[in-house]
């Protein structure tokens, strides 16, 4: 990795083009502010999340199930870039809250499949649609190659944050 952090060494100084990108990051803060997220969340989801002490980490599991459920816990861990025990804990809490179901995989009885509980599907679809509007508007302005570059950059950044 060309710019990997090495303990004891001074960090690399960003060049002007990188500083331009870095300067945009704090402008995303309103998107992640808990109050803004809660305002977009349907009441049923907000109430369940609060009553069961569920956090954004738990909430990150749910859209994965919209796009590809049912999923094995290992796939959830891979998608969220967390350990298998962490994914299992997140799924367990969501299951206790009634937001997801867990069933035995008929093809491999040792594997558990996780799916979104039917009672929460409409609320989650509404939340994801509301939450995605700014990003979808931005993506609409990009060419397919620009979208691919955006995805590659964002994925790389997430990986670096997770690994550091």
TrEMBL record:
Q: Which InterPro entries match?
A: ArsR-like_HTH, HTH_MarR-typ, MarR/SlyA-like, WH-like_DNA-bd_sf, WH_DNA-bd_sf
**Which Pfam families does the UniProt entry name for this protein?**
MarR_2
Residues forming the HTH marR-type domain are: 24-163
State the name under which the record lists this protein.
Answer: MarR family transcriptional regulator
Species of origin:
Streptomyces catenulae
Top-down, what is the taxonomic lineage of the species of origin? Bacteria, Bacillati, Actinomycetota, Actinomycetes, Kitasatosporales
């Amino acid at each position: 990795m060309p710019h990997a952090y090495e303990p004891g060494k001074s960090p690399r100084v960003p060049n002007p083009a990188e500083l331009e990108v870095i300067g945009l990051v704090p402008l995303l803060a309103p998107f992640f502010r808990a109050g803004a997220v809660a305002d977009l969340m349907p009441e049923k989801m907000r109430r369940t999340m609060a009553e069961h002490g569920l956090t954004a980490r738990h909430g990150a599991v749910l859209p994965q199930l919209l796009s590809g459920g049912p999923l094995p816990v290992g796939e959830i861990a891979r998608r969220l870039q967390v350990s298998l025990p962490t994914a299992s804990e997140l799924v367990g809490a969501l299951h206790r809250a009634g937001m997801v179901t867990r069933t035995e995989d008929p093809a491999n009885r040792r594997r558990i499949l996780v799916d979104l509980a039917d009672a929460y599907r409409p609320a989650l679809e509404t939340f994801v649609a509301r939450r995605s509007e700014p990003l979808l508007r931005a993506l609409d302005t990009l060419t397919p190659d620009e979208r691919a570059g955006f995805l590659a950059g964002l994925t790389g950044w997430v990986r670096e944050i997770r690994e550091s």
